[in-house]
From TrEMBL:
Gene3D superfamilies: NADP-dependent oxidoreductase domain. Pfam families: Aldo_ket_red (PF00248). One of its GO terms (molecular function) is L-galactose dehydrogenase activity. GO terms for cellular component: cytosol. It comes from Muribaculum gordoncarteri. This is Aldo/keto reductase. Residues 16-297 form the NADP-dependent oxidoreductase domain.
Length: 310
């Protein structure tokens, strides 16, 4: 496992890290015992960064994660969670007010069973009034940082332009990291266009969804996936090509997304301990760059545009 720094935070994290959304049953029903074992497997395998949110499973993911972390030394992992997106009884809710953000941090610590959060993020700012994020949400989190309740402050979003918009409008050092997903994968590398900007501001970069929400997997995409049919079909051909080579596309995708040292870490999520162990093993193996180019050719340059911006 390789380790990289998240900007100027001082956190040195594994290139592959654990996204806990699956613990909330976001993708499918889970076995809680297996989910807890998945977290343990991640830590044992050298993954030292865990990301969660009260939104995942409408608080369930944080609760299950708390059970998993109960017997694990706090010094073995960095913990990241979020504010802004919530839900109850199957209904999603959003609240980016300073009051709710502050309350949410303490609620998350109670659910997870910790007294300190290493990184607190404003979750999916595309759903917020960006001016409120600038003038209310982030100042509330900075206040918690100054009080020592949280270590560092970040923002997350699918739209890279939104991340830049907010960073341009807050005091330097307010935002210490960004979390972006589906933009550094075999089929979409738009994140590269923004790395210079983030680095100029001393901001660490966290990548997520190396399988592009199922596009780069044998399982395939869920019905709600936003990719156009042409891209889904192209990725399916790439999957079949990798299978014919005896090299699962999941392995190639994980290796590709974790291979850029300018990106601190890449999050993936699984409640299956065997999947966690396999992905850790993938990172330690050399990548087949010839196959990378073959896959990218199959998907096609015209298909690698940032479909997720639509």
């Amino acid at each position: 496992m390789k380790y990289n720094k998240i900007g100027k935070t001082g956190m040195v994290v594994s290139s592959l890290s654990f996204g806990a959304s699956s613990l909330g049953g976001v993708f499918r029903d889970i076995n809680q015992a297996s989910a807890i074992k998945a977290v343990e497997t991640a830590i044992e395998g050298g993954m030292n960064f865990i990301d969660v949110s009260p939104y995942y499973g409408h608080y369930k993911a944080e609760t299950v994660l708390g059970k998993a972390l109960k017997g694990i030394d706090r010094s073995k992992y960095y913990l990241s969670t979020k504010v802004g997106r919530y839900g109850k009884d199957g209904v999603n809710t959003w609240d980016y007010s300073a009051k709710r953000a502050t309350e949410s941090v303490f609620e998350s610590m109670e659910r997870i069973g910790v007294d300190y959060i290493d990184l607190i993020n404003v979750h999916d700012i595309e759903f917020a009034d960006l001016n409120q994020v600038v003038n209310e949400t982030l100042p509330a989190l900075v206040e918690l940082r100054e009080k020592g309740v949280v270590g560092h402050v970040g923002i997350t979003d699918l739209q890279l332009e939104n991340l830049k918009w907010v960073i341009d409008r807050v005091p330097e050092g307010t935002v210490e990291s960004v979390l972006n997903f589906c933009h550094y994968t075999l089929n979409d590398d738009k994140l590269l266009d923004f790395l210079d900007y983030f680095e100029q501001h001393g901001i660490g970069v966290i990548n997520a969804s190396p399988l592009s929400m199922g596009l780069l997997s044998n399982r395939g995409v869920p019905d709600w996936h936003p990719a156009p049919k042409s891209l889904v079909d192209a990725c399916r051909k790439a999957v079949e090509h990798c299978n014919a080579k005896g090299y699962p596309i999941e392995k190639l995708a994980i290796q590709f997304s974790t291979g850029n040292p300018r990106i601190a870490t890449t999050l993936f999520s699984s409640a299956n301990p065997d999947n966690v162990a396999n992905n850790i093993a993938f990172v330690d193996e050399p990548i087949d760059m010839t196959l990378v180019e073959e896959v990218r050719d199959i998907i096609g340059n015209q298909q690698r545009v940032s479909w997720a911006n639509s």
